């Protein structure tokens, strides 16, 4: 029996019941987006309102659907999951609504569909965006009247179910494109829960990695020496397109292939492809308001451009004694670079850009404990450029 289930939808959760709720739902994370999501689930679960869950693949939509059911008054009744994308269109109707004997070749007897099996419980329609339009109409009827016909039948069946649906598509866009019925969309979308991508809650990565490692080692009786702090820090730099599923897979893969040895920052590189330049710019510092994060992101892009210009200039300077290497376009390139440099150096905003750059470097140095190698990595600068900037801005560790 689940613990501390709130009875009213406005109830605020106490910390202890909050922890218990995290454990019960299996939805880990202390970041703001996860907390908000868990709170929404607790608020809406007690009602019979339909819930539409959206989010990228691997973010935990299925866990959210389970949590809604688990926290509802229907928790002792079944939760029936239907993967709408995995069932062939030809049999989908009969799978959902059941069929009568002889309704098609092979229907040797009457059969209940998922809706009847979910009676008094919840039905979770996963990948709802894949549902063919012919079935969408029929589903709408069940949503509106809670009744349906079995395939080949004429008797109306009543059903008492709670609807939970999930999609990793933008359903609103699918409505605009004419692939998804608008009326069905609005019916399903009575409450919308968006599950954030892992890159939008990077502060949860160390906790998740450690939990997945501990679970995996316990289940497989593996002794694991753990992650270094640097490795956990570095994991937050990756953009995790496969979200939590990818994190879990990579953690398990590393433990097996490294035979339980400690995972270091360097060790990660074999398993995680960090090349995407976005990885160097994000993670922008955690727990900050969106506009601040965006500002820092822009500064990082600027820093990177400036650093690339500096590197190119060094290359060209070196090339001035090696004309044959850079060839005829050298002059043209120099001019382009000069234009860009002029823009940043002579622009009215130059002072504030420089101030921001100084501030950005200063705060990164503090955060990394004046570890210049780490700071350079976070900032996406070469160590040499960082040293130059430290001198240029007269930054000193005893200033702070
Ligand atoms: N917050 C979380 N805490 C712990 N484990 C999580 C969390 N979110 C997801 N997981 C785990 O990550 C994996 C993927 O989650 P899930 O299957 O729910 O994703 P999904 O959004 O349904 O993906 P898809 O769209 O590909 O079906 C599962 O093993 C799940 O247990
Ligand atoms: Mg899923």
Topology:
Blueprint: H1 15-25, H2 32-45, E1 51-54, H3 61-70, E2 79-83, H4 89-97, H5 114-117, E3 122-126, H6 133-145, E4 147-149, E5 156-158, E6 162-167, H7 171-176, H8 182-188, E7 191-194, H9 205-220, H10 229-235, H11 243-257, H12 265-268, H13 277-281, H14 290-319, H15 323-326, H16 330-346, H17 350-367, H18 372-379, H19 383-392
Parallel strand pairs: 1-6, 1-7, 2-3, 3-6
Antiparallel strand pairs: 4-5
The protein binds adenosine-5'-triphosphate and magnesium ion.
What report would you give on this structure?
There is one protein chain. With 400 residues, this protein is α/β, with parallel strands linked by helices. The protein folds into 3 domains: 182 residues, P-loop containing nucleotide triphosphate hydrolases (Rossmann fold, 3-Layer(aba) Sandwich); 82 residues, Orthogonal Bundle (Helicase, Ruva Protein, domain 3); 108 residues. 52% of the residues lie in helices and 8% in strands. The strands form 2 sheets. A 5-stranded parallel β-sheet has the order 2-3-6-1-7. The longest helix has 30 residues. The N terminus is likely disordered. Bound molecules: adenosine-5'-triphosphate (ATP) and magnesium ion. The site of adenosine-5'-triphosphate (ATP) has 16 residues, from helix 3 and helix 11. The site of magnesium ion (MG) has 3 residues, from helix 3.
